[in-house]
Amino acid sequence: MSRTAVRRSIATATTALLSLGGLLLASHPALADVANGGFESGSLTGWTTTGTTGVVNSGAHSGTYAARLGGTSPTNGDSSIAQTFTAPAGATQLSFWYSVTCPDTVTYDWATATLTDTTTGTTTTALAKTCTNGQGWKQVTSSVTAGHSYTLKLVSHDDNYTGDATYTLYDDVAFTTTAPPPGLTQVSTDPFTNTSSQHATELEPDTFAYGNTIVASSQVGRFTDGGSSDIGWNTSTDGGTTWQHGMLPGITTYQGGTWARVSDPAVAYDARHGTWMVAGLVIDTNVNGAGVTVSRSTNGTSWQNPVLAVGNDGQGYDKEWIVCDNSASSPYYGSCYVEVDVTSSGNRIVMSRSTDGGATWSSPVSPSGNPTGLGGQPLVQPGGTVVVPYSANGSAVRAFSSTNGGSSWSSSTLIANVSSHGVAGNLRDGEGLPSAEIDGSGKIYVAWQDCRFRSGCPANDIVYATSTNGTSWSAVTRVPIDATTSGADHFIPGIGIDPATSGATAKIGLYYYFYPNANCTAATCQLEVGYISSANGGSTWSTPATVAGPMSLSQIADTTQGSMVGDYISTSVISGKAVSAFAVGKTPAGGQAFDEALYTAGPLTVTGGSTRSTTHGAARVAAPHTAKPLPTRH
Q: What is the reported pTM?
């Protein structure tokens, strides 16, 4: 089954389980590697070979290399590789991927594989004789018993007939464990009934974690032309297992405030002042982003009326974000920072700061050079340096910084130019807004959707770049969710990193939305939520999991800029477990137009795996001649 087909079958099972209150987690975290199971040594070291065998450096399932058995010219008989190994503790499956080129029939040519349990003396046909052509990579799994010894033999057979040479690529041989299926937990719902916005809808969540507490916020009651009836809060004090929820008071007229609408929730925590904060973009009756408010709480469940941080000055604003300096050794410990772009000035970016727990905020200032863009996500390194990655109006990802507690801000530097595939079905996807996080040492990860690794840009991968100083950035790296020929499209990433980890042992969780088939329409697109993790700073990754969906685009909020689950999502990692809140649409009941609520898959362990990320194979992405401001995206 191809990765796309795997996702489709998972989605079918998921739909069937919805009525039982749970979702199937299609997760197979990789355990100890088979020797050279990904063939990244560039050789067949560790394997016993017969016939015509070798490695190739193009068309691998992941990484750079795959094993090739047989040749592009006819060969005679079996070509094989074999290895004997012991299943490690916790292993329940052996998994491998194959791609066969067989222009003949299975009567004469084939790929096959056997797995012999040498402890019990039994042999299983892991891959029955198969002869297909042009079907791409497919996965095979076989059950194993931890502690038993096994011999895996991978075979490609060719009858040496002129004109129909058969060969097979094999890759990513690894032991895995199947996680039990967790429930998909609904953490909140839309309580509003006003006829001017859409119900029931919740979307565009952000999360932040400190200690064992996680606060998530989202838009609730989405208007078609911008903003929502209010911002909801959702708080867990046990690492994302159970949740409380409610609505922020005093912002909109629907909750005792004065503003017509609110949008773009973002969450932060100020450890010095013991204060949770949720920033929101307040919107007036003319559907203009009028400014940024900050709601505060000492416990994440009882919230004060908001203070105005930026705006209410006749200008237009969009896509604010908030962060606080929580490093006790920083000279700016307890400083908090708000980023927002001024739409009435061509998306000019401004910054404001607070040093009193968010009660008051400084007059906004622009970084040097007056950069323009949106979706900036400020991060604070342990020494107090603030780095702000942002989208340069969709054409690139850039960053600027401050080393003096926000008194002044540097000019911006390029992280990478962006090449992205237009997501099908008129889905509102944030147009590549970055998701940014930081590890315990201050290393910054910035992720976004990008098609540079796929020839012809038919779909997006999730990619990222890293920096330890905010000015020098790594090459763009592809997260190996599936093969670049998979046909799946990935977008709206939310990356999270365990702050207690760093460097080569940094634990990363990544949630994202995807279409199993990028080539779909508004009527046929199937939207799903995926999860993947790395336990070594992004060097290798787990097998991806499908945690929600499929959902049709008619099941999520309608906006003037497309169907909407959010321009962004977020992930928080606590004690090696990743938590995200995400919008899921279901078939509405009770006369409502929608049933789009906020869900979590529960804390998912950051297992990591053996599938390597890569910087190889990317097309060169040139800088655009001009970068026009993106439309306002309240």
A: 0.76
